[in-house]
Design a protein that fits this description.
This protein has one domain. The protein is 83% helix and 0% strand. It has 3 helices and no strands.
Length: 65
């Protein structure tokens, strides 16, 4: 029961992290082509946030309990 108690939170965290990872990768690739410095300033926080959300979804404990 405990593993299923925060399943929706884990799923939403993982899906948000995946979406941010895809967006960050697209912005990083686009920025390397057009505006390298400005684009990477935007892409870096997206990639860091995505990694944080994906790692948070893999933790064993639920943050709300």
């Amino acid at each position: 029961m405990r593993a299923r108690s925060c399943l929706s939170e884990r799923l939403s965290s993982f899906s948000a992290g995946t979406i941010l990872l895809v967006l960050g990768a697209l912005v990083a690739v686009f920025s390397l082509i057009t505006l390298p410095f400005i684009g990477l300033i935007v892409a870096a926080p997206l990639l860091v946030s995505a990694c944080f959300l994906i790692v948070a979804a893999r933790r064993a404990e639920c943050p709300l309990e």
